[in-house]
Structure formats: structure tokens, C-alpha cells
Write the C-alpha cells for this entry.
Amino acid sequence: MNTEDTQLPPVADVAMFIDWENMHGSIRGKANISALREVAEGYGRLVVAKAYADWREPRFQRDSLVLYKIGFEPVYVPAGFKNNADVKLATDCIDYAYKHPNIRVFILVTGDGDFIHVVTTLRPLGKKVVVIAQSGNASNRLGDLVDTLLIYEQDVNPDTSNAAPTPARKKRSKTPRTLDGTYKDIVGFLRKNEGSPILLTNVKQRLIRAHGKFDQRDYGFEKFKSMIQAGAKEGHFVLNNAGLRDWLTLPQQDTKAAETKLPDEVDEVFKEIVRIVKAVNHPNVFLSSVKHSLAKKYGGFDESVYGYSQFKEMMEEGESQNYFKLGVNDKQAYYAYLPKK
């Protein structure tokens, strides 16, 4: 057998460096890591992912935990020195360019014009440089020098909630299933997951495993998320953004909870748990009942959305922040209760 015939085509290795503080200068809420990862994987295999900030700042502390657990390295850069994060990010880029020649695509998530020298160093080394910036902080000088400039709110994570549906592009080839059939497959994945949300990137991987291959462009969509958004508008499932990433859940069966999505911050979950405990006609509510109530309200719930490996771990965090108290009975079953004032 000719070994050359069995080799896979070369795939570019990609490195992504996020100036976390810069990205939150004008963005509403948090940067969507799922959307950023999809862009990166569109260029090849994401092998390096780093985010830079002073993680001691209260607004970033929980972000660092979530980023770490989803494979993005939070690089600590102490505040107090001008452009400290920029310098560290720039030196890491140059270091990786020389030490890891396999990395051919560098994605800088920042609009800061101070990175011009990084770009002019990377490109002569044969590296493709992509910058993701917000429209309000994108440097014109930087945009003129890079290979590709993407505007975050237009090209990476556009808000399509009020936008008119765009007509599907012409299909590239005959598809193995109809689009409606693909949506039914996804609903099946969610039902088999027993009420737990599924990470958007994992949904695509399950489709690939189910059919051997999958490409949303066969259905007329440039991005997988665009296809999912269309399915969500038709009511097949609910697209949530929580814990910096995109998740799918089943539509809520309770009409009172219709259009209720997973909160972006775990603090909002803790507040909902307080409401759940108050509404129960019993002083102690078992954690299994709490989680079931959360799943009913949001169409699915899993603590991993917020970076926790176990539901009890998340509840202990809520207790440490004085939202409620935890107890355990003689059968080692944990329950939540509200302390008497």
C-alpha cells in the first residue's frame, strides 16, 4: 500500500491570544469563547489558546476558572504597569513563532494598535495573522497590516435576535439528510443527554460521529452557529450563552418559563435557587430536587456550564457566598435550606 495515499492532508496549527481586558472595554457582557473557538478552528487545529488579564480583579476571577476548565490558559499579568498585558502577549507570540514553527496561523483577539510590531515580525516568518477586534476599538493601522481583520460583533458573534432571516446559500453538494432531519438528530442528542445542556461544539462532533462527516455549508450556512440559530428560531431547541460558551437545551415545556435561558453568570443561578427553596413547602430541599427544578426552568441544566465538575461543588460555592446553607441527613443526602433571620 502506498503510505502517501493514506496520509491526511496537512492542517494548519493555530494559536489564539486574547487580550481579555481589552476585549471587555466596550463589549456588553462577556466574550463568547464558543464563537472565538469556531473561528479559530475554521483556520485549522487550535493548539494554543491563552487569555491575558489581572485575574485578581473581581470582574475576572470567575472567568479565569471557566477559561482554564475549557482549555484556555489564563495568563496572569499584574495590573499597575502600563501595557503590561500587551507586552506579555507580544513576547509570547514571538516566542511561539520561533519555538513552534508548526504554528502557521496566529489569531490576536484585540484591537490595540500596539501590536503592530508583533504583526510585522510574524508575517515575514510566513505566519498568517488574523485580528479579531470590536468595531469601537479596532486600530486602523493594525487592520491595514494583518492578513484578515474580523469585527467581533459582525463576523464572530453577531446578534441575530432581531435580524431578518437570511436566505440560505446555494448548497455545495447533495446532502445525506434534510436540514429538518439534522435538527431532529440534534433533538435526539439532547433527549439522550437526560436534560443536561450540550456544548455547541460537541453537537457538531456528535453529528460527525453519527454520519461519518458533517459540514453546515452543505445546508447553505457558512457557520455552524448560524445553522443552529435558524433551528432555534424554528423552536427545535434553545441556544444559550452561559459560562462564556454556547449551549443547547430542549425547549421549556413549562409555558411560564418560555424564553427563559441559562443565566450567563452563576450568581443568577444562586438567586434562582433561593427562589426555589422559598417556594417549597418544606425547610429542607434535597440537591437532586434543586437541580431538577433548574432543569425544568431552563430546559436543561448542568453545573459544568459554569466550570464546576459536580453539582455539590457549585452548591458549596453558593453557600460560601451566603446565598443559602447546606446540610446532610443520616443517609448522607445533601439538602439546601435558608437560614432563619
Observations:
- Residues 1-6, 163-175, 254-258 have pLDDT under 50 and may be disordered.
- Residues 266-337 form a domain with the Arc Repressor Mutant, subunit A fold (CATH 1.10.10).
- The first strand starts at residue 13 and ends at 19.
- The CA atoms of residues 67 and 232 lie 26 Å apart.
